[in-house]
Amino acid sequence: MRTIQLSIKGMTCTNCEEHVRHTLQKSGAENIQVDYQKGKAEFQFPEGLKEGTIRESLQQTPYQPGEMIHITTADNNELSATAYDYDFLIIGSGGAAFSAAIQASDNGLRTF
Predict the structure, then answer these.
(1) Tell me: the pLDDT tens digits for 94-112?
(2) What residues contact residue 100 under an 8 Å CB cut-off, 6+ apart?
(3) Which residue segments constitute the domains of the chain, with CATH numbers given?
């Protein structure tokens, strides 16, 4: 198994995390951790499967796959560490708040 960290743009909430997790699982990934706030997913991928299938699957969703990094076990704790570092705080849950979250995410900001 290879451990892979993938940056993903367009995630704005926990439902986005679930959608990405489900898509990665259908592609053959295992032990999946997705963090919409950091815009990253970390997972294990069997040696026999092609990484291109991950990109193709995610490109059929509203999320855009970015840089894919193969990580070692020493680097494996980045997503598991709890951090409260955000670039943009959204108060509210209406249409304007949702639009702001999408725009912030598209511009590479971490939102909460």
Answers:
(1) 888 888 888 888 877 777 6
(2) 88, 90, 111
(3) 2-75 (3.30.70.100)
